[in-house]
């Protein structure tokens, strides 16, 4: 029941005459590239490069990068929970409706009833947990397939939203909620000159440097631990190359944001969630049990995993994250509307599958789901910048989703025939 760990690039693998070529890998000179784990990141880089050229660089302008993050934050939050649901071998079709009903609840509490926003937020999160518990009970303990339960939930909670709101929205929200959804960190340390790039917020840059240091330290400790257990690790040169690429990406993102309006608060929230859920999925017993259930249910049961309890809490977690996304979305629009959350479940599911989740479960990463969500966001934003009609955007997104799932099936078949 080990957690899923990336095996991106290895040096020294051979196509012939030496070590056998492993399924799902392609060799480029002296490098062996694992398409299953690394393909999504290569595709993301190529998509960014393509739209950067098509938009004459507008895609990577500071304001546009900030807009991409803020406008898609709620989908990324949902993708974090959805990837765990899919890894366990289930699906959740109700998250869009849960976003709507929790946003409506928050609006009623804060706007109509005058409840202080911290207490209203807490009540909303508890309501999301109860919704997740309701669905988790029918799935885990009553044995109804998640597809059916959450499809019913999609209808039930949308009807409840319409009952609460009718045909009108409720707003405006308190300033603190709007700041969480649309606001930016203050320039506490002032600006620093970056030559031809102009000024940038010093505090944001320091946060970026700390993030890079934390990433390198975590990866180095993980590499040292694997070496201590006698496991295969990347060469030192390749490790340094991968860390340099990651550091360059983080630094570029932070510099661009620091040149605009500093770090969006919702990005800070996302970073905390990604870190917490990545650690949970890869370093805790509960996370490893999720992978075990999705990978081989019978083996998980025989190993003593409390499958029903794990599945129940997965859906409770999905309800809480849906509530967070509901508050963020309502705060961004500054009102809770009856049509909020429409098709959000499809975007979250697409993000998970594009990000590397397997159709049968047992495979996936939180960072991969975030990457999948960003791919969808970049496609939306890039095609909007070049003036593509909405039907063409949907066509491209559908093709990308189909290609991602087809690639997953293809790699599995290659692995099966190679054994």
Describe the structure.
With 419 residues, the chain is mostly helical. It is 69% helix and 4% strand. It contains 16 helices and five strands. It has a three-stranded antiparallel β-sheet. Strands 4-5 form a two-stranded antiparallel ribbon. Helix 14 packs parallel to helix 16. The chain is globular and about 60 Å long. The N terminus is likely disordered.
Feature tags:
419 residues; 4% strand; globular; disordered N terminus
Please write out the topology.
Layout: E1 9-11, E2 25-28, E3 31-34, H1 35-54, H2 62-71, H3 73-87, H4 95-112, H5 117-141, H6 146-165, H7 175-182, E4 191-193, E5 199-201, H8 202-228, H9 236-260, H10 265-283, H11 285-295, H12 297-302, H13 307-333, H14 344-354, H15 366-385, H16 390-418
Which ranges are low-confidence, i.e. pLDDT below 50, for 5 or more consecutive residues? Answer: 1-23
Strand order, sheet with most strands: 1-3-2
Please count the helical segments: 16
Series of H and E elements: EEEHHHHHHHEEHHHHHHHHH
Approximate strand percentage: under 5%
- The class by helix and strand makeup works out as mainly alpha
* Large-scale geometry: globular
- Main sheet properties: 3 strands, antiparallel
Summarize the structure.
By secondary structure, the protein is mostly helical. 69% of the residues lie in helices and 4% in strands.
């Amino acid at each position: 029941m080990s957690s899923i760990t990336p095996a991106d690039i290895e040096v020294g693998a051979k196509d012939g005459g030496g070590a056998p070529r492993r399924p799902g890998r392609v060799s480029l000179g002296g490098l062996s590239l694992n398409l299953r784990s690394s393909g999504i990141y290569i595709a993301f880089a190529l998509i960014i490069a393509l739209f950067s050229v098509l938009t004459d660089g507008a895609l990577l302008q500071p304001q546009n990068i900030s807009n991409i993050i803020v406008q898609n934050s709620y989908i990324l939050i949902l993708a974090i929970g959805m990837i765990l649901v899919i890894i366990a071998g289930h699906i959740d079709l109700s998250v869009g409706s849960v976003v709507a009903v929790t946003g409506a609840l928050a609006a009623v509490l804060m706007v109509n009833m005058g409840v202080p926003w911290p207490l209203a937020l807490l009540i909303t999160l508890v309501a999301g947990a109860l919704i997740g518990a309701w669905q988790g009970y029918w799935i885990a303990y009553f044995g109804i397939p998640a597809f059916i339960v959450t499809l019913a939930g999609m209808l039930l909670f949308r009807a409840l939203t319409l009952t609460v709101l009718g045909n009108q929205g409720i707003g405006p929200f308190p300033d603190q909620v709007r700041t969480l959804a649309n606001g930016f960190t203050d320039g506490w340390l002032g600006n620093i000159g970056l030559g031809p790039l102009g000024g940038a917020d010093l505090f944001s840059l320091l946060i970026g440097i700390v993030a890079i240091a934390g990433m390198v330290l975590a990866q180095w400790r993980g590499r040292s631990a694997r070496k201590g257990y006698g496991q295969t690790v990347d060469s030192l040169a390749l490790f340094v190359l991968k860390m340099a690429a990651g550091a360059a990406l983080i630094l570029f993102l932070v510099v661009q944001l620091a040149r605009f309006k500093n770090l969006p608060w919702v990005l800070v929230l996302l970073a905390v969630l990604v870190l917490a859920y990545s650690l949970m999925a890869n370093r805790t017993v509960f996370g490893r049990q999720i992978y075990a259930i999705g990978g081989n249910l019978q083996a998980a049961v025989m190993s003593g995993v409390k499958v029903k309890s794990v599945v129940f809490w997965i859906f409770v977690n999905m309800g809480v994250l849906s509530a967070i996304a509901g508050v963020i979305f309502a705060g961004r629009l500054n009102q809770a509307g009856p049509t909020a959350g429409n098709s959000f479940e499809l975007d979250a599911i697409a993000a998970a599958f594009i990000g590397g989740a397997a159709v049968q479960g047992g495979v996936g990463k939180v960072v991969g789901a975030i990457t999948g969500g960003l791919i969808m966001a970049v496609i939306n934003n890039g095609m909007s910048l070049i003036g593509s009609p909405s039907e063409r955007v949907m066509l491209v997104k559908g093709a990308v989703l189909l290609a991602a799932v087809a690639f997953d099936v293809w790699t599995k078949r290659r692995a099966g025939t190679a054994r």
